[in-house]
Amino acid sequence: MSLLEVRELHVWFDLQEGRELHAVQGVSFGLDAGERFGLVGESGCGKTTTILGLMGLLPPTASVAGEVLVGGESILAGGESSVRSHRWNDIAMIFQGAMNALNPVKKVLWQIVEPMELHGIADGTQARRMAGDLLEMVGIPASAGERYPHEFSGGMRQRAAIAMALACQPKILLADEPTTALDVMVQAQILELLVGLSNDLGLALVLVTHDLPVVAQVCERAAVMYAGEIVEEGPTEALYHAPRHPYTRLLFAATPDLYGDEAVVSIPGAPPRLDRAIEGCAFRPRCDSSLDRCESEHPEFRAMGAGHRAACHLNDLPGEERAAREGARRAGSAAPAATPGGGAP
Ligand SMILES: Nc1ncnc2c1ncn2[C@@H]1O[C@H](COP(=O)(O)OP(=O)(O)OP(=O)(O)O)[C@@H](O)[C@H]1O
Ligand SMILES: [Mg+2]
């Protein structure tokens, strides 16, 4: 049984004048204890909405459907009280931009003590000692907990945000773009910290980012999201070496390779609006190898190998034909440009 299982999660946001935006469109994935799983995709594809949805933290303008199971127990079905009993205790989250959202008028230590006391984990001196231990665990001297967030560097604030998320000893940590606003050296240190924590504490980690190579570095498995859906999921090795969705292939090609000398190419166009129904494959207008049927038929998920699945009509073609089609179109479509997604916190 998976530690976390998300089944057919949908989120709609109410817009004005009766319109709605279908931000998450049937997302399913599972996570085992201690596993590191990546959720990747361009800005606006629904990553944050997915994880806020499974934490029960979306605003009242959102409607949610689907199931979220923690240890086999459905947490959304029982309403707010049921989600609340799991939130932070079993499943915790580092918010996108969390390092800039620490309370400026409270000392850092207190910001870790507070959730502990609120959730009945510990209080008083014991909570303060535990909060100090957590700070040490994330690489901050316990004594620095007596300082205010503005006295911390960006990297230290992100470490403090991680310590806060761990205050109630969760089994699952959802980290939303935890390294985006940091410089490259600090990014590497924070990723190393998250990997270390997942190894040492047996913590299951969902790493949410627009940066596919970061996921390939940190996670054993990943799901690639596009326009509110997961379009490919599998072991990161398989996604890198044998992607079965053009978007995954193009995402890797659109990010500089640390060791390679291949030119970075852009993915032309932009993701579709999610406040309108999408016919056929949502990626078709930007795809470099689409088929006629992609215009009208929505591709279903199909198994591609052990734990590897993808939703792309190209996979119905014989392997050689598919490869030839991708190769031929790719040769003509490469254009130098920036990396995908804004990724701004
Ligand atoms: N509160 C809201 N009300 C209406 N629409 C929203 C709301 N929050 C998000 N959206 C929309 O839902 C879609 C998914 O947004 P989301 O923030 O989940 O994307 P994301 O993948 O996390 O992007 P980023 O990489 O920029 O963080 C977008 O079209 C966004 O505009
Ligand atoms: Mg986001």
Q: Which outline best applies?
A: globular
Q: Report strand order across the widest sheet.
A: 6-7-8-3-9-10-12-11
| Radius of gyration over all CA atoms, rounded | 21 Å
List how many beta strands DSSP finds.
12
How many helices does DSSP assign? Answer: 10
Q: What is the makeup of the main sheet? A: 8 strands, mixed
Bound molecules: adenosine-5'-triphosphate, magnesium ion
Report the oligomer: single chain
Mean pLDDT: 90
Topology as a string of helices (H) and strands (E):
EEEHEEHEHHHEHEHEEHHEEH
Structural class, by secondary structure, is: alpha/beta
Helicity range of the residues? 25-40%
Q: Report the β-strand fraction as a percent range.
A: 15-25%
The low-confidence parts are 332-345
The N- and C-terminal alpha carbons lie at a distance of 34 Å
Can you put this structure into words, describing what you see?
31% of the residues lie in helices and 21% in strands. It is α/β, with parallel strands linked by helices and 345 residues long. Among the domains are: 101-166, no CATH class; 237-333, no CATH class. An eight-stranded mixed beta sheet has the order 6-7-8-3-9-10-12-11, with helices on both faces. A hairpin with a 2-residue loop joins strand 11 and strand 12. The protein is globular, with a radius of gyration of 21 Å. The protein binds adenosine-5'-triphosphate (ATP) and magnesium ion. Adenosine-5'-triphosphate binds at residues 13, 21, 23, 41, 43-49, 59, 61, 96, 210, 274, 341-343.
